[in-house]
Design a protein that fits this description.
Strand order of the largest sheet: 4-5-6-7-10-11
CATH topology of the largest domain: Nitrilase/N-carbamoyl-D-aminoacid amidohydrolase
Strand content: 25-35%
Number of helices: 4
Radius of gyration: 22 Å
CATH architecture of the largest domain: 4-Layer Sandwich
Shape: globular
Helix content: 10-25%
Distance between the termini: 34 Å
Length: 249
């Protein structure tokens, strides 16, 4: 609040607040206007289960926007980046600028970069990603704060150190690109509200008594020339994996 008022600028920051019961925290992104007014407070909707965050943080349930110049900004937090439906929800509400604050580990920094660009491209919106640097006993953070335009072009890159990055966000360029490439007009809202488990067409409802095996599906342009008579023979069981994916840092 004081920083925003002193510098006469917009400030977005992360903090942990106690929930209503006081038994858990709420991971929030808060934004202050140049006058120091708190105009936005977003609660992270996706606690990261790989870190057991759900044991300590109560998830939020709403996406909110706030006006920022000509833009409508949508704040999100860290692990939310892996869930494109959250961004699409914000876009449907009118968002054209996404601000993602994060503590993203260096070991998966390429995911951070790729997903930020993907969220900009698929929503034809500007995306600002702010990631911490430094170390904790079990984690090194990757930096690479980015400003990305609606085509996925990186306008500014903070690299690996503490720094200030800046870029011009041109509302008219965003609008022009959305007119030139009107992909958002083809969005199917009915696909944005699918249940986690559908009664029809859900593989979990098929052959529930049988053992699940990983499959490798082969594709070929000339099935008959290869001597294959039907598509069933294109499906091969994969060998059992020899090692598990290590998610540890």
């Amino acid at each position: 609040m004081d920083l925003a008022r002193e510098k006469k600028c917009w400030v977005t920051a992360g903090l942990i607040e106690p929930n209503k019961t006081g038994k858990k925290g709420v991971n929030r992104s808060v934004t202050f206007s140049p006058s120091g007014e708190r105009i936005s407070s977003y609660a992270k909707t996706h606690p990261a289960s790989i870190y057991e965050e759900e044991k300590f943080h109560e998830p939020g349930n709403m996406i909110g926007l706030f006006p920022l110049g000509s833009f409508k900004a949508c704040p999100l937090i860290c692990y939310d980046l892996r869930f494109p439906e959250v961004f699409r929800n914000g876009m449907q509400k009118g968002a054209d600028l996404f601000i993602v604050i994060a503590c993203w580990p260096k070991v998966r920094i390429e995911h951070w970069i790729t997903l930020l660009r993907a969220r900009a491209i698929e929503n034809l919106s500007y995306v600002i990603g702010v990631n911490r640097i430094g170390n904790e006993p079990n984690c090194e953070y990757g930096g690479r704060s980015l400003i990305i335009d609606p085509t996925g072009k990186v306008l500014a890159d903070g690299k690996n150190g503490e720094c200030i990055i800046e870029a011009l966000l041109d509302y008219s360029i965003m609008k022009e690109w959305r007119n030139q490439f009107p992909a958002l007009e083809d969005v199917r809202p009915d696909f944005l509200h699918l249940k986690k488990s559908c009664e029809q067409g859900n593989p979990s409802n098929v052959n529930q008594g049988s053992q699940q095996v990983p499959l490798l599906i082969l594709a070929t342009d000339s099935v008959e020339e290869e001597g294959v008579k039907d598509t069933d023979s294109l499906v091969r069981p994969l060998p059992k994996p020899q090692q598990r994916l290590d998610l540890s840092l």
